[in-house]
Specification:
globular, 12 helices, single chain, binds phosphoric acid mono(formamide)ester, about 325 residues, Rossmann fold
Length: about 325
C-alpha cells in the first residue's frame, strides 16, 4: 500500500480504514515529527490548497492543530463556526458540502451527530475529515497510537486499559484502531455505559484478525493490572450536560488516581485526550505526575494532522 491509495478518501470513522492504512498514517505522522525537529518546519506538499474547518462544538487541540498543520503544509485553513454559516439558518448539509467542495480541497468537521459528518462526506467532492462526532474521534486515536508507538516502540501486544465511560467517542475510535493494530484493550466501565454494540462488534471482528484481545469489564483495578497505558476521558462529553449527575454517580469509582496507577504496576503510562476535568476522572498528581505523557500526546495531534491532510489531499 502506498499513501497515494488514500488520496481523495474521507476519514469519518476508522472502520473504513485497513490496518495497513492506519499504520501508514501513523508512520507518516512520526516522519513529519522527525522532520519538524530536524528543522523542516514547513513541508509544502499542500501549497495552493485550502481547507474548510466547520466546527459545531468548541475545540482547542483539534482546531489549532489542524490550522497549524495546514499552514506547515503550505495550505490555508479557514475556521467556520456552524452558526456563522448559512447552516445555522437552515441551509442543508448536502448543499453546504456541494458548495464548499467547489472552493476548497478538504473539509474538517466537528459535529454533534455523527450522521452530519457522514452526510457532508456523501455530498462533498473533496475529502471530509471527522474532527469529532458523538460516535468517534478518529484523528485523536491516530495521534494516540502514534504516541504509544513512539514511547513503547511497538503497538502489537501493548496492553491499554481504558477506565471510565465505555460509551465515549474517543474510546470507540481507540477500540476500532487498536483492534486493527493488535493492541490488547481492556475497558473498565459500569454496565450502563458499555461501548456501542456495532462498534464493539467491529472491534471484536478486527481483533479476531489481528490476534488482539478486547475485553469489557467493570472492575478498574482488574483492568489496569499489568497495563502499559492507562487511558481515561471526561465523564460528561459536550452535549451530555443533562446526564451530568447520573454519569458522575456511575463513574465516581473509576477515577484515575495514585492508588489506581500504583495498582497498574511500574510500566504503566497515563494518557488523556484532554481537556481534563481535574479532580473528576483524573487527579492532579496523576496528570502532572511521572506516569503522564499527555503533553506529548497533545503535541502529536499536530504531526498526525499533517499526515492525514497530506495523505488524503496532497
Ligand atoms: N482532544 C480534543 O479533541 O481536544 P479539543 O476538544 O480541544 O479539540
Amino acid at each position: 500500500m502506498t499513501l497515494y491509495d488514500l488520496k481523495g478518501r474521507s476519514l469519518t470513522c476508522l472502520r473504513d480504514y485497513s490496518p495497513d492504512e492506519i499504520r501508514a498514517l501513523i508512520e507518516m505522522g512520526l516522519e513529519f515529527k522527525r522532520r519538524y525537529y530536524a528543522g523542516e518546519r514547513v513541508i509544502p506538499v499542500l501549497k495552493g490548497h485550502s481547507i474548510a474547518m466547520i466546527f459545531e462544538k468548541p475545540s482547542t487541540r483539534t482546531r489549532v492543530s489542524f490550522e497549524v498543520a495546514a499552514w506547515q503544509l503550505g495550505a490555508k485553513a479557514m475556521y467556520l463556526g456552524w452558526r456563522e454559516l448559512q447552516l445555522g439558518r437552515g441551509e442543508t448539509i448536502a448543499d453546504t458540502a456541494r458548495v464548499l467542495s467547489r472552493y476548497v480541497d478538504g473539509i474538517v468537521a466537528r459535529v454533534y451527530e455523527h450522521e452530519k459528518v457522514e452526510e457532508l462526506a456523501r455530498y462533498s467532492r473533496v475529502p471530509v475529515i471527522n474532527g469529532l462526532s458523538d460516535l468517534s474521534h478518529p484523528v485523536q486515536a491516530l495521534g494516540d497510537y502514534m504516541t504509544i508507538l513512539e514511547v513503547k516502540g511497538r503497538l502489537k501486544g501493548v496492553k491499554l486499559a481504558f477506565v471510565g465511560d465505555g460509551s465515549d467517542n474517543v474510546l470507540h475510535s481507540l477500540l476500532i484502531a487498536g483492534a486493527k493494530l493488535g493492541v490488547d484493550i481492556v475497558v473498565a466501565t459500569p454496565k450502563e455505559l458499555r461501548p456501542r454494540e456495532d462498534i464493539l462488534k467491529a472491534a471484536l471482528d478486527a481483533a479476531a484478525e489481528s490476534g488482539s484481545e478486547i475485553r469489557i469489564i467493570e472492575d478498574p483495578y482488574t483492568a489496569v493490572s499489568g497495563a502499559d497505558v492507562v487511558y481515561t476521558d471526561v465523564w460528561v462529553s459536550m452535549g451530555q450536560e443533562s446526564m451530568r449527575e447520573e454519569k458522575t454517580r456511575l463513574l465516581r469509582p473509576y477515577q484515575v488516581n495514585r492508588r489506581l496507577m500504583e495498582a497498574a504496576g511500574g510500566k504503566a503510562l497515563f494518557m488523556h485526550c484532554l481537556p481534563a476535568h481535574r479532580g473528576e476522572e483524573v487527579t492532579d498528581e496523576v496528570i502532572d505526575g511521572p506516569w503522564s505523557i499527555v503533553w506529548d500526546q497533545a503535541e502529536n495531534r499536530l504531526h498526525i494532522q499533517k499526515a492525514v491532510l497530506a495523505a488524503l489531499i496532497a
